[in-house]
């Protein structure tokens, strides 16, 4: 039995195969409409979510399965003090697979150690968000045609942004990927990403503060929200929250085929006027999240082997 805690839990060839499956699901959804009949997905979300929880639920329903779960710690027995370990033991009796989001880093890993069913990390604190990364990889590969030979700009809250940490971990395994890390000093990537991931693997990267200084060289611009919920004081958040606002004017220097991505939700970091730009792909990206989560559910339940794709 396999769990998914980090994008590194899958080899590059396993990720390529999962993305192939997701592309096939997009093309022929009816082929997979009964694949999970009789199976149940539990969504255990101790933190708010729109895309991840609902796209997981849509994914299981699209596969013919059923869903159950809770959408906040307050609506589960966590509010009475139940541990994640005890909760997953119970969920293991009710469901075949579980997607878990938790504000504490490592909580889904703790759950996986006691679980009798596959556990998927649906975001743990400021640490990792592997299914967002699979979504991002599918989006980039589908729209660019490849995952190597790209200059990727990551902009905003690179300190607390778990989507950024997971995406860097995943993309360093492809050839000739260069990162431009665009953030204010206080929101730079954590040292463990800079030293143990980027430098240790000889990955080309630069760190800049001004988005305008990087724009013209980017193949992908990945905007992120400043993570209010991870700040220790509101004053710092208010000072930093509008540090970057992508608008039409700032895009003047961008390549014509640059992809603008964002894991969403956005607050103010992409002006609504950008939504009409042909390079704006963040809503399409959210749609890819359903296909990739369908592919992931099939893979972890070992039902992917029933299909040729
Ligand atoms: N991208 C993402 O994780 O969105 P939600 O918080 O809405 O799930």
UniProtKB/TrEMBL annotation:
InterPro entries documented for this protein: Asp/Orn_carbamoyltranf_P-bd (IPR006132), Asp/Orn_carbamoylTrfase (IPR006130), Asp/Orn_carbamoylTrfase_sf (IPR036901), Asp_carbamoyltransf (IPR002082), Asp_carbamoyltransf_Asp/Orn-bd (IPR006131)
Catalytically driven reaction(s): carbamoyl phosphate + L-aspartate = N-carbamoyl-L-aspartate + phosphate + H(+)
Top-level taxon in the UniProt lineage: Bacteria
Biological process (GO), any one: 'de novo' UMP biosynthetic process
Record's keyword terms, sorted: Pyrimidine biosynthesis, Transferase
Stretch forming the signal peptide: none
Pathway: Pyrimidine metabolism; UMP biosynthesis via de novo pathway; (S)-dihydroorotate from bicarbonate: step 2/3
Residue positions binding L-aspartate: 80, 162, 225
GO MF annotation terms: amino acid binding; aspartate carbamoyltransferase activity
Keyword Transferase: yes
Residues that bind carbamoyl phosphate: 51-52, 101, 129, 132, 264-265
Domain Aspartate/ornithine carbamoyltransferase carbamoyl-P binding: residue ranges: 2-141
Stretches assigned to the Aspartate/ornithine carbamoyltransferase Asp/Orn-binding domain: 149-299
EC numbers, comma separated: 2.1.3.2
Top EC class for this record: transferase
Function, in words: Catalyzes the condensation of carbamoyl phosphate and aspartate to form carbamoyl aspartate and inorganic phosphate, the committed step in the de novo pyrimidine nucleotide biosynthesis pathway.
PANTHER family hit by this protein: ASPARTATE CARBAMOYLTRANSFERASE (PTHR45753:SF6), ORNITHINE CARBAMOYLTRANSFERASE, MITOCHONDRIAL (PTHR45753)
HAMAP family in UniProt: Asp_carb_tr
Family statement: Belongs to the aspartate/ornithine carbamoyltransferase superfamily. ATCase family.
Subunit and interaction comment: Heterododecamer (2C3:3R2) of six catalytic PyrB chains organized as two trimers (C3), and six regulatory PyrI chains organized as three dimers (R2).
Protein name: Aspartate carbamoyltransferase
The organism of origin for this protein: Lachnobacterium bovis DSM 14045
Lineage: Bacteria, Bacillati, Bacillota, Clostridia, Lachnospirales
């Amino acid at each position: 039995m396999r769990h998914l805690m980090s994008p590194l839990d899958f080899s590059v060839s396993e990720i390529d195969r999962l993305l192939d499956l997701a592309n096939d699901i997009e093309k022929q959804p009816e082929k997979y409409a009964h694949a999970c009949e009789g199976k149940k997905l539990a969504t255990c979300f101790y933190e708010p979510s729109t895309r991840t929880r609902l796209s997981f639920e849509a994914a299981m329903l699209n596969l013919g399965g059923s869903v159950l779960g809770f959408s906040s710690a307050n609506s589960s027995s966590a509010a009475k003090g139940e541990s994640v370990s005890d909760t997953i033991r119970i969920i293991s009796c009710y469901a075949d697979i579980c997607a878990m989001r938790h504000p504490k880093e490592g909580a889904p890993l703790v759950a996986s150690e006691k679980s009798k069913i596959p556990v998927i990390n649906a975001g743990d604190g400021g640490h990792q968000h592997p299914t967002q990364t699979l979504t991002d990889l599918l989006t980039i590969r589908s729209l660019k045609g490849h995952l190597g030979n790209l200059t990727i700009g990551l902009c905003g809250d690179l300190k607390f942004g778990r989507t950024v940490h997971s995406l860097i971990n995943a993309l360093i395994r492809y050839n000739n990927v260069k990162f431009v890390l665009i953030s204010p000093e206080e929101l730079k990537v954590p040292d463990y990403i800079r030293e143990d991931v980027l430098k240790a693997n000889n990955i080309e990267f630069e760190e800049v503060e001004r988005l305008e200084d990087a724009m013209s060289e980017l193949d992908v611009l990945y905007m992120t929200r400043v993570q209010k919920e991870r700040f220790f004081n509101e004053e710092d958040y208010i000072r930093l929250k509008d540090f970057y606002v992508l608008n039409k004017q700032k895009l003047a220097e961008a390549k014509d085929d640059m992809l603008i991505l964002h894991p969403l939700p956005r607050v103010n970091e992409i002006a609504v006027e950008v939504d009409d730009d042909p390079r704006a792909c963040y809503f399409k990206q959210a749609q890819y999240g359903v296909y990739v989560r369908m592919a992931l559910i099939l893979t972890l339940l070992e039902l992917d082997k029933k299909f040729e794709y």
